[in-house]
From TrEMBL:
<dbReference type="InterPro" id="IPR002655">
    <property type="entry name" value="Acyl-CoA_oxidase_C"/>
</dbReference>
<protein>
    <recommendedName>
        <fullName>Acyl-coenzyme A oxidase</fullName>
    </recommendedName>
</protein>
<dbReference type="GO" id="GO:0050660">
    <property type="term" value="F:flavin adenine dinucleotide binding"/>
</dbReference>
<dbReference type="GO" id="GO:0003997">
    <property type="term" value="F:acyl-CoA oxidase activity"/>
</dbReference>
<dbReference type="InterPro" id="IPR055060">
    <property type="entry name" value="ACOX_C_alpha1"/>
</dbReference>
<dbReference type="GO" id="GO:0071949">
    <property type="term" value="F:FAD binding"/>
</dbReference>
<dbReference type="GO" id="GO:0005777">
    <property type="term" value="C:peroxisome"/>
</dbReference>
<keyword id="KW-0274">FAD</keyword>
<feature type="domain" description="Acyl-CoA oxidase C-terminal">
    <location>
        <begin position="468"/>
        <end position="644"/>
    </location>
</feature>
<dbReference type="InterPro" id="IPR037069">
    <property type="entry name" value="AcylCoA_DH/ox_N_sf"/>
</dbReference>
<feature type="binding site">
    <location>
        <position position="166"/>
    </location>
    <ligand>
        <name>FAD</name>
    </ligand>
</feature>
<feature type="active site" description="Proton acceptor">
    <location>
        <position position="412"/>
    </location>
</feature>
<keyword id="KW-0576">Peroxisome</keyword>
<dbReference type="Pfam" id="PF22924">
    <property type="entry name" value="ACOX_C_alpha1"/>
</dbReference>
<feature type="domain" description="Acyl-CoA oxidase C-alpha1">
    <location>
        <begin position="267"/>
        <end position="427"/>
    </location>
</feature>
<dbReference type="InterPro" id="IPR036250">
    <property type="entry name" value="AcylCo_DH-like_C"/>
</dbReference>
<keyword id="KW-0276">Fatty acid metabolism</keyword>
Length: 652
């Protein structure tokens, strides 16, 4: 009962309206209502139970996922759920499945790359799930380097192996396949094709194709609900019209016709998914932070006053590890919202043949995907440690969350490879300044380069660090100076590619600095808008300052070595940060309640809404199959003879 009392007390002392914050977190009242309804629907249906996952074998786990996916689809049809509702329902089912790839990559790829005629043929089938699709791009030998994919699509194809595509191993009937298009003896580079891979009658793999699952992945359960697959083609023939031809066509005579658009549009689905992954980072991090915050308020160690020990959330070290993660979850939420806007904007421009913002959209999605997933993966692990020994139990929900989440640093583009793309974009932006090209969008600050190279930070006392324009300028100065330094060093190389290779570690750091600036800038921008709700804006302002000042603290080397700030100003930033932690402390539990997660979705005894941790941890332990019998299997074969042996030895 102790825990129950504590969380109620925590909620009573918060200084803002948690219901209003729930709406800010969800993005709008409508989005909140949909999420709330779908999360309860899933939580209240025993068919979606997930607490038994860790005890299942891989085959049982996978079949269980198929059952849930089929049941979810039945519900979607029965309840006539909208696309948004269906997406939220799948989200709260909280189990990686082939449906993620079908809805998340196959359908978007068709929509983005198909002609009207192709859309009419394939989309209705995909929407009704009469075909199930996956996204087969990565090969055994090439993942990051898409241009060097070896699979060819010609009139006389060679053979090759795909490796990794989710949903491919056991379920998909169709795949979007990436291959080099060769016609009339000429190689036109990588294109997307739709290929049927399994029979729609008996699900057998079609002749000439070999498919299997690639094997058990990291973590117990975790991402093993997904059938990542291997596929081998041996002289497969597909009709010409299964090349997705919105941007380039092959005529009946085999002539290649390229529309007047950048070839990079074939990568459009990756941009779309990278954008989604940023919002998903805020989902995963907020979930871990919710568990760690509630548990830190329940857990007591040392420092007994009046016979009660201190709640671990009151330790300053606990706060300095936890609250930056809380702030990051909100920061990633808002930058994700902005990225959604940027994506919609670039899509509308592309439709009007305006390709000017495509490089910016690519750089932002690639860079933000990298730094939000890296911070989230590290953050989940930090939350596990923040929960002490209990965090290591699967019933804390954290080990599984970590294992499911970490591949986000690799899939949809390895994080370092993607940051190097941002670095290229930055170097290009700096070099174009010389020719007088005005930078726009997220690099607009480079247009004030002279000022940024000369300016000095105005902070004189700790409170000055609460001034958004001072903070913003510090991040701009650091980023601009790092990019310029890289560009200068690069110009000393006669071979630019060689220089880029040699300086790549510094270039990655410059890219990180630029992306962190975007996150800080978008958080500040969000706060300049109308944010209704009692005390809501005030809390968000504190979180924004925490995100910025903690990032500054963590990357202090950058800020000092670029002379953006002085050591004294760094120390003032730390003072301000400590003060902010103290101000957030009474609101911490309410700030995680605002995520509106059900206990089902959290899947954590430590993160229970009621805080009733200990009796449930205890009960859960007894449910473990290891405790079915007091004497374990194997006692007679392996323990008893050993004990007897020891007895004989001790008598000697
Ligand atoms: C609500 C719940 C939602 C849950 C959401 C969770 C989502 C999870 C969903 C599914 C689970 C995971 C599924 C995973 C799927 C996959 O992993 S699919 C495979 C993904 N593969 C990759 O990402 C490969 C990474 N590599 C690349 O993208 C590229 O090869 C590259 C590294 C970017 C390099 O490309 P390339 O060799 O062509 O490039 P360059 O010569 O360097 O560049 C040429 C110019 O093109 C520009 N460029 C590159 N990419 C793009 C792009 N996507 N858009 C626009 N422009 C692009 C590049 O900047 C160069 O420009 P420049 O010439 O001006 O310098
Ligand atoms: C869980 C999961 C699901 C996936 N699902 C799919 C799917 O559905 N469909 C699909 O097609 N693919 C899928 N993939 C594959 C994924 O997209 C690739 O693994 C990813 O793009 C990374 O490519 P890679 O494996 O070739 O890594 P590599 O490129 O081999 O990376 C290995 C190391 O080399 C470094 N490196 C590589 N190139 C450079 C460079 N130019 N400069 C500096 N360092 C470099 C990387 O940073 C990394 O440290 C999935 C992967 C995972 C883990």
């Amino acid at each position: 009962m102790e825990g129950v009392d504590h969380l109620a007390h925590e909620r009573n002392r918060s200084q803002f309206d948690v219901n209003d914050m729930k709406i800010v977190w969800a993005g709008s009242r409508e989005a909140f209502e949909v999420s709330d309804r779908m999360s309860r629907l899933v939580a209240n249906d025993p068919a979606f139970r997930k607490d038994n996952r860790v005890h299942l074998t891989r085959k049982e786990l996978f079949k269980n996922t198929l059952r849930k996916a089929a049941y979810a689809w039945k519900k979607i049809i029965e309840l006539k759920l909208s696309e948004e509702e269906a997406g939220r329902l799948r989200f709260f089912v909280d189990e990686p499945a082939y449906t993620d790839l079908h809805w998340g990559m196959f359908v978007p790829f068709l929509k983005g790359q198909g002609t009207e005629e192709q859309l009419q043929k394939w989309l209705p089938l995909a929407y009704k799930m009469q075909i199930i699709g996956c996204y087969a791009q990565t090969e055994l030998g090439h993942g990051s380097n898409v241009q060097w994919l070896e699979t060819t699509a010609t009139f006389d194809p060679k053979t090759d192996e795909f490796w990794w595509p989710g949903g491919l191993g056991k379920v998909s009937t169709h795949a979007v396949v990436f291959a080099r298009l060769i016609t009339n003896g000429r190689d036109y580079g990588v294109h997307g094709f739709i290929v049927q891979i399994r029979s729609l009658d008996d699900h057998s793999v079609l002749p000439g194709i070999t498919i299997g699952d690639i094997g058990v992945k990291f973590g117990n359960g975790a991402y093993n609900t997904m059938d990542n697959g291997v596929m081998h083609f041996d002289h497969i023939r597909i009709p010409r019209n299964q090349l997705l031809m919105r941007f380039s066509q092959v005529t009946r005579e085999g002539k290649y016709v390229q529309s007047d658009v950048p070839r990079q549009l074939v990568y459009g689905t990756m941009v779309y998914v990278r954008k989604t992954i940023v919002i998903d980072a805020s989902n995963a991090l907020s979930r871990a932070v919710c568990i760690a915050t509630r548990y830190s308020a329940v857990r007591r160690q040392f420092g007994s006053q009046d016979g009660v020990e201190t709640q671990v959330i009151n330790y300053k070290t606990q706060q300095s590890r936890l609250f930056p993660l809380l702030a990051s979850a909100y920061a990633f939420r808002f930058v994700g919202e902005w990225l959604q806007w940027l994506y919609t904007d670039v899509t509308q421009r592309l439709a009007a043949n305006d390709f000017s913002t495509l490089p910016e959209a690519h750089a932002c999605t690639a860079g933000l995907k990298s730094i939000t997933t890296a911070a989230t993966a590290d953050g989940i692990e930090e939350c596990r440690k923040l929960c002490g020994g209990h965090g290591y139990l699967c019933s804390s929900g954290l080990p599984e969350l970590f294992a499911v989440y970490v591949p986000a640093c690799t899939y949809e583009g390895d994080n370092v490879v993607l940051l190097l793309q941002v670095a290229r974009f930055l170097v290009k932006t700096v070099s174009q300044l010389v020719s007088g090209k005005k930078p726009v969008g997220t690099t607009a600050y480079m247009g004030r380069l002279q000022h940024l190279m000369e300016s000095t930070c105005k902070v004189q006392k700790a409170e000055d660090w609460l001034n958004p324009s001072i903070v913003l300028e510090a991040f701009e100065v650091r980023s601009a100076r790092m990019s310029v330094e890289c560009a200068k060093r690069l110009s000393q190389f006669t071979n630019q590619e060689e220089g880029f290779h040699e300086l790549s570690p510094s270039l990655v750091e410059a890219a990180v600095a630029h992306c962190q600036l975007i996150i800080v800038a978008k958080f500040i921008e969000k706060l300049q808008g109308d944010i209704p709700g009692n005390g809501v804006k005030d809390q968000l302002q504190k979180l924004c300052s925490i995100y910025a000042l903690f990032t500054l603290h963590k990357h202090l080397g950058d800020f000092l070595s670029t002379s953006t700030i002085t050591p004294k100003q760094a120390s003032l930033a730390d003072d301000q940060l400590r003060s902010l932690y103290a101000q957030v402390r009474p609101n911490a539990v309410a700030l995680v309640d605002a995520f509106n997660y059900t206990d089902h979705y959290l899947g954590s005894i430590l993160g229970r809404y009621d805080g009733n941790v200990y009796p449930n941890l205890y009960d859960e332990a007894w449910k473990d199959p290891m405790n079915d019998t007091a004497v374990p299997d194997g006692y007679h074969e392996y323990i008893k003879p050993l004990l007897k042996q020891q007895l004989r030895n001790s008598r000697l």
